[in-house]
Amino acid sequence: MIHRNREAKLRAQSIQSEKMAALGLLVAGVAHEINTPIGAIHSNNDIMSRALTKIRKMVGPARDKEIARLLDIMAEVCGNNEIATDRIMKIVRSLKNFARLDEAERKRVHIHEGIESTLTLIQHQLKKRIRVVKQFGEIPEIECHPNQLNQVFMNVLVNAAQAIKERGEITVRTRREGNSIKISITDNGVGIPSKNLSKVFDPGFTTKGVGVGTGLGLSICYKIIHDHHGTIEAESSPRGTTFTISLPIHAT
Amino acid sequence: MSENGRPTVLLVDDEEMVLNSIKSFFAIEADYNLLTYTSPEKALEDLEANHNQIDLVISDYLMPEMDGISFLAKVKEKVPLAPRILLTGYADKENAIKAINEIGLYQYVEKPWDNEELKLIVRNGIEKVNLLQELQRKIYEVDRAHRELSDVQTDILRIFA
User: How many other C-beta atoms can be found within 10 angstroms of the C-beta atom of residue A169?
Assistant: First the structure.
């Protein structure tokens, strides 16, 4: 009975992995499709603002108050559009960087890039509620599957954000330790009760209730880190939780 | 150099909105004779019909008919001096880097592109092609002078022989 249960959980884990892979494809496709139109809008807005500058020079100090007012409004709208398109472009870049479909195989990358992209993507979950403190150390590039590691960062960071009920802080630390790098993600949220702490990496374990969590997120993180010959551990107290990921610098 | 001394730039992208945007930008910030095409095949046909009169070429990478690198390689055969610029999305960056060596790419510009950067790259490309064209003319003149000189030499030799 226990055996069959375990089998079912493993199957669920593999279905979830496939779902994530399909989602990655979708994300990369959407990002690619948005890229061209947003590029055109960004460029067109720049053209409008250049044309506007030229018109201002030709008109000189506008004698007509209404013309002056309209020119001011146009300049302000252009400025606003620029901020908006810059933001979309940043998100699209992060989506692309997150999915990294061009790099299906192992690759040497700097994991700070992956962490930064992931933070941009979960910005809406952090809002002004959660302050993110980055304490990045000097770490070398590592050989890894960047898209898979990004998925781990995403999972742990989203869990951290959900553990913080109102206002709080998430600290992301990176450092080198001998032949490995360590990434720790600490939140000052509600913490995980000690009876649950040993089960967080089990497939199917969730405290979030049906429809919120799949209960598979951390088990997949565990598998990904294990496949990278690394370790992932959780420590918790009622004052918060720390997940520590250790990854070898050189793949074996 | 064609069209009353205005440099001619060939621009190919399957997206009309990209063509329009770049066209409008150059209309207010530069003075080029800009030829735009959504079809690389048609661009090659017209290029042939117009005796390959272009100074610089910009092409998108991902297009349904033919990718930008194959297109630029064909343009290179017809107009070897014209600098070739590739427009690419993020995912095609590695292809672009490969193309730098394969077809002697002058530059690649990542989409979404920055107008100011595009302006500088195109301006430098035009300067480069002008110098190359000038050099080619000078080489031709030196060649001709040399040929004339050796004709004279032959004449002199014949007189004194």
Answer: 15
Q: A93 and B90 in contact by Cβ < 8 A? A: yes
pLDDT digits (tens, 9 = 90+) for A202-242: 776 777 655 555 556 788 788 889 889 999 999 988 889 99
B35 or A213: which leads in pLDDT: B35
Q: Could you tell me the pTM of the whole model?
A: 0.71
The structure tokens listed for A71 are 């020119």
Contact A166, A190 (CB under 8 A): no
Q: What angle do CA A53, A56, A57 make, to 5 degrees?
A: 90
- Taking the Cβ of residue A89 and every Cβ of chain B, the question of whether any pair is shorter than 8 Å is answered with yes
B74-95 confidence digits (pLDDT tens): 999 999 999 999 998 766 677 7
Distance from CA of B12 to the nearest CA of A (A): 14
Give the whole-angstrom CA distance, residue A68 versus residue B39: 43
Inter-chain Cβ pairs, chain A and chain B, closer than 8 A: 53
* ipTM beyond cut 0.85: no
Residues of A in contact with B22 (CB under 8 A): 43
SS (H, E, C) chain B: CECCCECEEEEECCCHHHHHHHHHHHHHHCCCEEEEECCHHHHHHHHHHCCCCCCEEEEECCCCCCCHHHHHHHHHHHCCCCCEEEEECHHHHHHHHHHHHHCCCCEEEECCCCHHHHHHHHHHHHHHHHHHHHHHHHHHHHHHHHHHHHHHHHHHHHHHC
CA nearest to B110 within chain A: A39
